[in-house]
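Subject: complex prediction, re-run

Hi both,

The earlier run crashed halfway through, so I resubmitted it with identical inputs.
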Amino acid sequence: MKTKMKVLWLSAISCNGNTHSFFNYSQMEQFLEDFEFIYHPVIDSKYLLQDIVSQDIECDVLLIEGAISKEFKRADLSIVDIIQRYSKRVKKIVTVGTCATFGGIFRESGYEKTSGLHFDQEKRVDTFKSLLDKTISLSGCPVHPEVLVNTLYAIKKDITLKVDEFLRPKEFYAYTVHNGCTRNEYFEYKVDNHNFGELEGCMFYDHGCQAPFTHGSCNKILWNEVNSKTRAGLPCMGCTEPSFPRQNLFSTKKNMAIPEHLPVGVNKRVYLTLAGITKAFKIDRLEKKLFDD
Amino acid sequence: MLDKKQLKKEQIIECALELFASRGFYSTTIPDIAKSLKMSVGNMYNYFKSKDILASEIIKYISVYLGKKLREINEEDISTKEKTRKIVEMYFKTASVKPEMIDYFLRIYLSNREVFRDTCEGMLCVNEFVTEIMIYFEEGVRCGDLREQDFFSAFGLFMGYLGGMVFLKGEDILPKDLNEYVEDITYNIYKALSSQ
Amino acid sequence: MIKLIEKIEGEAKLDFSFKDGKIDFVDVKFMSTRNIENILKGKRAFDALVINPRVCGICGHAHLIATVQALESCYEDLELSNKAKIMRELTLNFELIQNHFKWFYLTILPFFGHSQQILKATYPTQLMGKAIAIFGGQYPHTSYAIVGGVVCEITQMDIVKCDNYISQTLKFVEDNIVKVDAKTLLEATNSDLLLEYEGDLPNILREIKKEDVLKDAKSYDRFIAFGESSFFKKGKSLKAKVSHKISLEDVKESEVPSSFAKNVSYKDKYYEVGPLARAMINKTPLIVDAHKKHGDSVFSRVLARVYEISTLLNHSKILLKNLDLAEPSYIEPPLDISKLNSSGFSAVEAARGTLIHKVEIKDGIIKNYEIITPTQWNLSGGSREKPGVSQKAMVGLGDIKTAELVFKSFDVCSVCTTH
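This time it finished cleanly. Structure:
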C-alpha cells in the first residue's frame, strides 16, 4: 500500500479563501490518494481540532493559512503554540497565502503583533527563525490550487525548489503576473486609454494594475483553468506581494503622469526611453475595437 | 577605437547646424554643406541619404547632447530646487555657447514639423531629452517637492518659458544677459511647479 | 456541557444545558473576529471592493456584490446597464450553487453515516468556479463588479462556454442529486413524490424523515429576505403567510457580551434567513409543500437548499439568454468618488441568506462600514426567554449529535458571522 503524506492544514487569522481555492484543484481524486489531511478546515479528518491541540499527532507537512498573532487562539490554544509544536515534527512548513506569508489583509485585524510566519510585510520576523530552512512561502490571495498542490508533490518527491528572498518557489514566482496577459500589446505599445468594460486596453496606466511588478503565475497557470483577473479586465491587485493590500487599488499612483511603480527590474530611464519611442507611433489596430465591423 | 564614420557624421552635423543658423534651413543645401566640409556631394550621401534624414539626425544629436547634461544633473544628490536652477543654467549656457543648437530646436524643429513627420513621430527624436525631463519631474513629485499634475502642463511651462527667453535673446530684445535671469526664472518655475 | 463545533469555516462553541434529559438552552459563542469593519475605516471607498470579498472564502462574492451595491447607493444618479446587472446576478447565483453542493456533500452527508463525498462536492463546484471566472477572471476573490458596472466585456463564445458549464452542472444534478430530468424536478410540487426518486437528495431526505427526533426540531416559522434580484423576492413569511412590505430600518444589530457575533433582529424578533426563507417568500411550490408537511425543520431546510441549486441553474440559463451584448458593461459614474460625501446600504441574498452592507463615505474615504451576515440572523444568541432561531430549533432535543446537525442545517459560517 502506498503511504500517504500526512498534512495538517491549520487556519490562523483567515477567511478560508485558500481552503476554497484548493477545492478547485482539478485532479482531486489523485491528490486524495497521495495525501491525507490529519486536519483540514472543511474535509473530514481522522482527528478533530481538539485532538490536534491537545495531542502531538504524526505529521509530515504543516500548512498554515492566515495571519499569525500570539493572541489568536484555535480551540483555546494560541496559534503560535500550535505552530511551534507541529513545526518540530514536520519535514516542511508551507505558508499558504499572503496572510500567512506576509500578514496580508488580516495583518490589520487588530491582534497584537500580527504578521506572516517569517515576514511582516517585507521585514523579517524572528519568532520562528529556526524554521526558515523548513519553510516554503506560497503567497497569493488566494493561492492558486496548482501552486499549492504541486508544491506539496515537490515535498513528497523530495524535489528541492529554488526559492526567492521570501522563500517563494521560483517555478511560480519568478514570473510577473504581466507575463501572458492578453492585454500585453496595449502595454507594449503604450496604448494608455483603457476603459473598464472593454476587451481592449491595459490597466497599468490609469487603473492601478500591478501585474508588471507583481510576482506570480496568474497568466501562465490560468485561474479555474479559464481566465485571469487582468484578462477579464480587472487590474492585478498585487496580492502575492508583501505590500498587499496597497491603498487606492483601482488607480495608478503617478508622479507628473509617470507611473511610480515600474515593471520589476526595469530602470526608470530605460522604461521612459522605450515608452517615448513606442508612444510616438499610433498603431491603428490597437486603437480600434478588437471585433470591429 | 572611436568610430571614424561616427566622428565624421558629427562633423557634418556640427557644420550643418552652423550653416542652417547663418543661412537658413531652406536655403542651405546638401552640396553647400559638402562644400563647406570639402567633401564630395556623393560622399556626403554616404552619411546622410537626404536632407530630411540629416535634419532629423541633427535633432537627435541635440537631444542626446542635452539629455546627457540633464542626466548629470538628475544624478546629483541635490534638492529639486537646486536641480531646477542647474537645468535653467545649463539650458542658457548651451544657448550662449552653442546657440545654433537651441536655435535649431526652436526655429527649425518646432517650426518645420513637416520635415520631421516621417522620421520623428511624436517625441521620437527628442526622446533622450524628454526622458530626463520626465525623470526630473517624477523624482520631484515622488520626494514631495513638486505638485502632481499632468506631464505636459508642467513640461510646457518649463520648456516654453526657457525657449521663450532664448527666443527673446535671439531677437536681441533682452536687455540683460541670459545668466542674469537665472535666479528669477528658477524662482518662478519652482514656485509654479512646487507642491507648496 | 460545552461542545466545540468544527469545520464551519472556523469554530463555534455550543454550551448545552440539559433538563430532564433534554436540551433546555444552548449558548452559542464565536471566539474570534478579524475586525473587517475596522480595517475598512479610513480606506478609499473602492478598496472595499478588494478587501470585502476576503470576509469569507466561500461566500466572498456575495460580499463583493453587497459592497458594490452599497457604494452605488451612495450616488444619486448612477446609471447601470441591464447587462452589468445580469452578469452580477449570474456570478452571484453561481456562488450560491457551489456553496450548496459543498454544504450537502461535505457537511450534511456525514451526519447520516456516509463519508464526505469530496469529489461530488468539487466537481460541480469547479464548474461554477469556471463560470464565475469567465466574467470575474477568477474564483474565489474576484473584484470584478465595480461602481458603474463590471470590468469585463464578454463575447458570444463566453456565453456559449458559460451555458455549457450550467448544462454540465444540471447534468450532474440529474445524475446524482435527484435522478430525474431537470424539467420534471423543476415542475415538482409534491415533496412526498420527490422521496420516491433515486439520488443523493432523496436518500438523505428519507433518512431525515426516519429520524423522529428531527420532526420537532423546529424554530419560529418566521422567515425574512431583503435581497432582491430577478429571481428572489424581498419579503417575510410568518406561518407561510407572505408579505413583501418590509424595511431595512427595522433591522437591529446588538452586541452580545459572551460572543463576537452580534445579534440581528427585525422589529425585535428573530427571523430565519437562507434558501428555505427565500423559497417560502418566493412561494416555490415544492418547498411550500414540504413546509406544509414538515414545517421549518431540518427536512425543509435541506430540501430547500439543495433544490435552490436547480432553480438557480434554470434561472441562470434564462438570464444568460437575456444578455444583450450591445449594451455597455460599464458606465462611468457621474461623480468622482473622491468628491463623494454620502451614505448608503445594500442587501443581497448570499448562500446562507440576507447579507447587509452599510457604508458612510466622506470625500471618498470610508468613515464607517457595517456588515450584517446571514449567519448572524440564524445564529443570534438569544436568552432563555427569547432564544435565537437556531437555539429554538435545538431546544428539546435529547442529544448533542442531533443538535449539531440541526445547528449545521443552517449552514453556519464562522468567519462571516464575526467578520
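The mean pLDDT of chain C is 96.

- K.
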